[in-house]
Structures are given as C-alpha cells and as structure tokens.
Amino acid sequence: MENKTGSKPHVVLLASIGMGHLIPILELGKRLSTHHNLDVTIFVVASQSSAAESQTLQSAMTEKLCEIVELPPVNISGLVSHDAAIFTQICAIMRAIKPALRSAISGLSFRPAALIVDLFGSEAMMVADEFEMPKYVYIPSNAWLLALTIYIPTLDKVVQGEYVDQKEPLKIPGCKAIRPEDVVDPMVDRTNQHYLDYVRMSMDIPKCDGILLNIWEDLEPKTLEALRDEELLGQLCKVPVYPVGPLTRPLKPLDSRSGELFLWLDKQPSGSVIYVSFGSGGTLSLEQMVELAWGLELSQQRFIWVVRAPSRKTGNESYFTAGSGEANSMASYFPEGFLDRIREVGLLIEDWAPQVEILSHPSVGGFISHCGWNSTLEAITNGVPIIAWPLYAEQRMNAVLLTEELGVAVRPNILASEGVVGRKEIEMMIRTITVDKEATYIRNRVKKLKNIATKTLSEGGSSYNALSIVAKKLELRWKTMEVNAS
Ligand code: UDP
Predict the structure, then answer these.
(1) Could you give the ipTM of this predicted complex?
(2) Which of these, 14, 74, 277, 325, is most buried using a 10 Å CB contact count?
(3) What InterPro entries does UniProt report for this protein, alphabetically (predicted)?
C-alpha cells in the first residue's frame, strides 16, 4: 500500500454477503461520504448474487458517492457442509475472504484511516491490525442485540443446557431479559457450529475501537445506558457505542415510481393497504401461505403481497432461502379461486418489490413483516404500523422490541417456528392495526417515532452528531498519518 494519505480522510468498509447486510453498509458509506466529507471505499464480497443484489450494487456504483470494489468470490465447499446454517456459511465466507481483503487494502492508492466491518466481518478486524488501522464494528441492528452478543460469553459460562430449554428469561445486566423462545438463531443449538461462531464473534467485537448501531439515541435508552455503564455491560465492552441511525435506503426518484403497481396504489384510499413481505429471503410453508391468503381475504382490507415460492418443509417451519425458491405458478400456492376473488383488492408481486417506495406511499397503512432490522426501520421511518412475523436470525427479539417496548406492532400468539398462524388470528391482527380502536394508538405511536427518527439524522440531531464524532476521530488519525508520511 502506498503511503499517500489523499486529500481527505479515507475509510474502508467491508460488507457481508446478503441484501440485509449489503444495504446498511452501503448506506453508512454514502452517509460518511456525503455528510462527513470522507473518501469511502466499500469492499463487497462477490456472491452468487441475486438480481436485486446486483442492481443495488450497480446503482451504488453509478451514484459514485463511494468507491465500490468487489472482492473475488470464495469457495467454502470444503470448509462447511452444504447444509450448514446460513449463519455458519456467512461466517465461513467472511473468514475465507481475509486474504483477498488484505491484498485489496494493500493495493489502495491512499492509506485508509480506519476499517469498518459489520457483525459478520468482525474476524476481518485482524487485517486492520496488520495495517495498524483503527477498526469499528457497524451492527446494522439494535442495542438489545448488541447487549446480548456482548453478554454471550458470560451466559455461556453460567447457563447449563440449551438456552431454549430454560424456564426463566435470560437476564442481561441493565437490559430487558430475553425469553428463551426469542433468542437469536445461533443460540438455539449450543452444539452447532453457528453457536461457536456466535461466541467467537462476541469475543471479537469488544476488541474494536467503537461500535456503530443502526438506531438513534432515544430508541433504546435503558439498553444504551447499560452498554455504557462500567458496572453493567460497559465492563465487558469498554469501547464507545454510537447510535447513528436510522440509516435506510433513500427513495428512488418519483419518475421511477411508475407502472402498474404505483398506478394501483395511487387509486387506493389513504392508509388502506397492507404490505406483506418477508425480507430478502424469508419463506413460509405452503400451509402457512394458505392461512395467510385466507386471513388477508377475511380481513377485507386491500393488500400487496410479495410472494415467494413456499419452502419445501411442511407445516410450521419457515426459513431463509437465498434466490427465488422453486419455480412454480403462483396460482398453485393459494386456495382455489383466491386470485379471482382478490382481483380488485389485492396485488401479488413475485419475489421482489420496491419496498421503500411502497412503504412511503400514502395508501399503505400496515406492514406484515418478518422484522429484519432494515424492514423495521423502513416501516418506522414511513410511519407504518407492523404485524410482527419473525422468521429467523434476531427477528424474534426485534418483534419483542416492536410490540412490548415501542408499541408499534402486534404479534401472533405463536411463533412461526412452532406452528401455523391461523387465518382468524391473521384477520384479527390486520383489523387491530387498521380499523379497530387500538389502531389509532399504534398509528400515533409509529408516527411519533417517525418524527423523532427523522430529526436525529438532521444536522445537530443525535445520530448526526454521533457519526460526526466518528468522522472527527478518523480525521485526526488521517492528520497524524499525513504528518508521519511527510
Ligand atoms: N427488500 C426489498 N424488496 C423486497 C424484499 C426486501 O426492497 O421484496 C429490501 C428491504 O427493503 C430491506 C432489505 O431488502 O431493505 C431486507 O433487509 P431486512 O433487514 O429487512 O431483512 P433480511 O432480508 O436481511 O432478512
């Protein structure tokens, strides 16, 4: 790597594979470049990427706000079994990418002032050490997840048996306790590789120089306090925590919001449409899709459903599928006559929809969501009440936060992993967030959060200030590098 430092501080970001990881890193990079005057290079791991992923990368490259560099794909077939959990696979990819990252950093024209990785990239922090660079972790999620992650090595020592078999909620100092059934996926089976990866990650994170979160200061005050309190979680992780969110994808220009979907939305009454989507890879069983179809129909509300082919598993299992699932005609997933009966009130979109643009449309009044953190923030920043339908990863915790702490969502009584949510319950939840008395309360709550969230990102807002502090630190570091280089 050349010793040159460039005309302004240069920071490198590493994105993990998957849309849910790529989007927040891109948005952080853009924000650092546009609002904090940094030169930003984003390394992305070339994957067997979906069309949506390629388009997202392409448009980020066209914008030219950051330099986007694709690292060569890595082959992990000899490293993990083909049926390993997604979590394990991503960890293996991010481990295997280290040599490529090392040589990409070596090849840069300007020395970076820091490396920022996400949760899955925490192992790559050792590459930053080799180049004597500060390193930051961006957790594109909430403080409660960070608190649990930091506390895992302690829970690992004190909890006997599986976490999911515990009779009492798992206590985390200063934070809301976590019910055993809501733990993150890697904690579900302690004998599995993904648990070992999670514990390793938990031990790596506190070695960084600062942690960025995709929340804002007022969203989880109690948890942030515990993370900063040296008698609580602060003793396990002594680095500063910076809430810099909500960083979400910006809306595409109005002229790109044309076509049948937006023409249809324009014709619907304000706040009348329920948007149904389970993220970049969530799938439901066929049985669950049938119940959801009935629930939507019984609710008599309008809806847009991003339909993905059902998972091959039966009954109550739901999981993440990268790509578009099985190719099949949509009609075969639904109750007989469903497509004809909903013709006037429902729109079905296969696989992928322009989610941010849909959620921002005034006709949309509710979101059945798997509670991925990007989707969660997109709902909140557009003031849309949520039906929390968690499927995988940390989504059960997100659902708890949305329903029990923030009051912006309702949730089925059973977990998707434990059974099929019935049509009556679905109908009832839809009515709760749209037409019942409770709907006004939830709508007001989410609108209030929306207003607060928007302000935090403006100049002088808490998230703006938090990211400014990070940027200032990088600038200081760059100035020192400049002096040393001259
Ligand atoms: N997304 C989208 N259209 C879709 C499905 C998903 O634009 O049809 C976007 C969504 O807006 C969000 C991201 O993909 O920004 C999904 O991230 P999230 O954290 O919600 O869930 P994940 O896919 O990681 O489980």
Answers:
(1) 0.99
(2) 14
(3) UDP_glucos_trans, UDP_glycos_trans_CS
